[in-house]
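Field reference: "sequence" (input) and "structure" (output). Example, Peptidase M3A/M3B catalytic domain-containing protein:
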Amino acid sequence: MWKLTSRVRPHLNSTRWIVRNFRSGVAGDATGLYGFHHLKTPNGFQRFVADAIERSGDLVNYISGMPSSPEIIKAMDEISDTVCSVVDSAELCRQTHPDREFVEAAHKAAMEMNDYLHHLNTNHTLYAAVKKAEQDSNLLTKEACRTAHHLRMDFERGGIHLSPEKLDKVNNLTTNIFQLCNEFSENIADDPGHVDIFPVSRIPRHLHHLFNPIYRSTAGSPKGSTRSVHNSKQKGFRITTDHRTLTSILQWTPDEEVRKMAYIQGNSVPHSNHGVLEKLIASRHELAQMMGCNSYADFMVEPNLAKSPKVVTSFLQELSKTVKPKADEEYIAIRDFKREKCGDNSAELEPWDETYYTSMMKFSVNDVDTGAVASYFPLPQCIEGLKVLVESLFGATFHAVPMAPGESWHPDVIKMSLHHPDEGDLGYLYLDLYSRKGKYPGCASFAIKGGRRISDTEYQLPVLALVCNFSRARASSVVKLNHSEVEVLFHEFGHALHSLLSRTEYQHFSGTRVALDLAEMPSNLFEYYAWDYRLLKRFARHYSTGETIPEKLVNSLQGARNMFAATELQRQVFYALIDQMLFGEQPETARDVSQLVAELKREHTSWNHVDGTHWHIRFTHLLNYGAGYYSYLYAKCFASTIWQSICEEDPLSLSTGTLLREKFFKHGGAKDPAELLKDVAGKEIISVHGGGIIPSTTCLLNELRLKI
């Protein structure tokens, strides 16, 4: 029933929204992690779990007395808020805390709460109360009515309508799926693969700091002699082929054999995930069938805009056909460039060549020096850019606030408040932006508290953390972002704003708790700001001279941006089709997943599949976006349409920001997603197809110059 996830009309009076049960961090006043007083020590997670279960139990007892329907919905939402606070805090702690004791305590807390959730989700008294509230829709607000409907649907998607035996099976499958997803991720972290390269001269010097040196013995002989007179040590590097390191090798290493070795190794491990993925596919399929669905894809897509996998697959296949001619042209251009550079007119293009040669082509054609670009994006200035953005769009400030002792989990963390001069604080965002050992390896926004109304004068403010992994050579050095990292920062900030600007009555719909195929729209929309000179000129400054980034350099960046747009779009279609096929209807006899992936790559991309590689066993989106990866493409289409129709003409105006807040951000998931989109950009942004909704591709294809 409970979803564990992870823009305001000005008020006419001076009432400040305040946070209940959350300490906003007064300097000197000790608290625990994220402002929760229980979390002063690892053992505090036990008390945090126990209190959440106790409070939820009290609310369950209250609901069992069948109070008024509005009170039922309010109490149900408080249960959800109580449980999610523990689960979300535990997840953030597991992924970012440097202390293993905290990490292990958080993991244990997550498992205990997962067990308790099974108890809640199979509580027939709660289910009956929610059904009663939904039937009393005339007594509820529109949002409360929508909440009641979604709670009832969530109960039923959890299997409460099944027999006790089948419900036990569903709960066991759910637990098994949770454990398989953890195992898949842990295997990637534990076995990233490696290759040993000798000598060190085969690796570009500016990458040397990324690798651990290794040595091997070599026999030396005097010139003209066959007698070995001494042994010497030859230095090399052990290259760990995790995603981040592999990308650097593929982009910067001229030695094709090194690129090939790293590509094959990085796309062949961890071998143990073959079995894990097969079990995950089987478990999800069995779960879906017990729920009366043909496939897990049917089960997952039905609540979303698309409604069915057939709609999704049709959309993806049509997009694949549209993109293919241009993608083939780009492939030929890259192949010819390789032949020119290596002096071999018969050289073939291989997958380990793509990043290296496309980067070279972008830089040479557009005269883009990545080192020069990064000089204009020191991280502190990029944060200034976020401040400029929210002040221009929303009339708000984004500033650092002090944390109480115990509130932070690492010295690098800073806490920001989004503050409006008339409305007060709108929410809080922790920034944990630097890479470190043992930390979550990617970039993501983590929920801590969802927004919800407590009373007529009290509002629980949203709290979340934005986590990135920007690297620095030395602790004291200025961290400079390459432009793709700037884009990632703005992408994640779009997610954060979706939560911070939400003002829903119930946390069940707070911020990013929307239909899956709408959730990525705000993040994709805010990527556009990372490319717009009207914003960049206001914060991008050279780290040593203070010079504003030249418009010519930004124009060059923009020229390089879409040089291989068809290739990139084709890749995203391929990823989405893999996701749909793996979790779609299953054949009667077992299939070879690696062979299916290879066939899809040959059919839907211009690139060869390398035998023996198994890229999909590191594709973590199969875990959290199972049967939902298509939502990235939906989001790109929605964002392109909104940017062109609403933002592009005057992207930094208060009127643009007000429209985005009022028509989209403040509603979170409390309004129908199709209505939200039409309210923002007009009815042309979507169309009905096969009983589901698909986005208009016109703006995106025109933007990428791919319209046929």
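The CA atoms of residues 185 and 620 lie 7 Å apart.
Confidence is low (pLDDT under 50) at residues 3-25, 223-229.
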